[in-house]
Amino acid sequence: MQYYSLNKKAAKVSFKDAVIKGLAPDKGLYFPESITPLSKEFFSHIEYFSNEEIAYEVIKQFVGDEIPALALKAIIAETLCFDFPVVEIEKNISTLELFHGPTMAFKDVGARFMARCFGYFNQDKNAAKVTVLVATSGDTGGAVASGFLGVEGVDVVILYPSGKVSDVQEKQLTTLGKNIKALEVNGTFDDCQAMVKAAFLDPELIEVKNLTSANSINVARWLPQMFYFFFAYKQLKNKKQKLVFSVPSGNFGNICAGVMAQQLGLPVKQFIASTNSNDIVPNYFETGIYTPKPSKQTISNAMDVGNPSNFIRIQEIYKNDDALLKKNISSYAFTDDETRAAMKSIKAISGYIADPHGAVGYLGLKKYLKNKKAQGIFLETAHPVKFLDVVEAVLNETIAFPPQILEVIGKEKIALKIATYQELKAFLLK
């Protein structure tokens, strides 16, 4: 499989090069040259396949022969070592739980897959050392730290906004040590993202450092997120209803992966991009004008993104046809007060404790399904314990710490505080 830059000014590259580079030389995101739908037979028998078998069929065309089948299957097996249950909330509305991995967030799948691809490509001891440089609004950092911990030939540098991630999230990305380094930035997620982008554009830096990213801009982080949607379909196929997915959306990697799954033939009636008050995409759907703006801090902080990187990929999938895009995707924004009310409503209806991001997904689903008949699924992207202060305050309930969290919560935070790009550059050049 070849990958091309969405800026259309760089040469096509292999899967390996797209993974290692992260961004194209023209600073565009990589996109697969072709998308071949899966067979009708695959979908008609999907309930008889294991999750690992499904994932292999979904991803193999995008990897090609660059990772042999046996090695790719081993990577998938190590990636998918936890469950993805669908839990019914009310009639025709369920949630897909994506938080049963090591860091209790959906990003575990992409981070683990990407790290193991790096591990495979770095088997050659003469390969150049890679520095993974990543900005996080919360969950990406922990997932990347866990996924890449101890991977040969890879250093990981994580930038996160000071005071704008939860205590649990901060512990997950600042306590592992070894090849994982955390930089606490005096600013917002967008400031962190801007520093990362500046590093990739800095000729002096890229001359001496082999930099790549582990955000969903990287194809090996983004494409495995397709798996979730197939796993949900497998579990709900017997409902014999059209599926609607509501995806809590920040950087738009998850929903973009869902749209890719649809391109592979997954029968999905509609996607809903549910956002918090960072409403860039919902506004675009209303006005036709895409206007990035500084992110606002909310209680669903992993979605506090003012310029979603992956939206350009969604536009590419639909060949920049706005009418087609809006036919397949709806997008709604919700306030913190609406999110709190939804968390209370979900608890009252079903006893289920949703995190703030899942609650935003639920709100988008309820809005879309009003007077429509379909099977709705909202993604529960992180365990509520990761947003302990918010969840306990809203629901007046104590949340028990799962084992994955108990492992890190008592460890000492180690992070270097920085405020400027020059400080980041100096750190990387040490």
Word description of this protein:
This protein has a domain of 201 residues: Rossmann fold, CATH 3.40.50. It has 20 helices and 14 strands. Helix 4 runs antiparallel to helix 5 and helix 5 packs parallel to helix 6. The strands form three sheets. The chain has a six-stranded mixed sheet, sandwiched between helices. A five-stranded parallel sheet has the order 9-6-7-8-14, sandwiched between helices. Strands 2-1-3 form a three-stranded antiparallel sheet. The chain is of the alpha/beta class. The model has no long low-confidence stretch (mean pLDDT 94).
Outline: globular
The tally of helices reads: 20
User: Low-confidence runs (pLDDT<50, min 5 residues)?
Assistant: none
CATH fold annotation of the domain at 83-104 and 221-399:
Rossmann fold
E-strand count:
14
CATH class of the domain at 83-104 and 221-399: Alpha Beta
Please estimate the helix content: 40-55%
Q: Which structural class do you get from the secondary structure elements?
A: alpha/beta
Residues in β-strands, percent = 15-25%
* Biggest sheet architecture: 6 strands, mixed
Strand line-up across the major sheet: 4-5-13-10-11-12
Radius of gyration: 20 Å
| CATH architecture heading of the domain at 83-104 and 221-399 | 3-Layer(aba) Sandwich
Query: How would you state the average pLDDT, rounded?
Result: 94
Through-space gap between termini: 37 Å
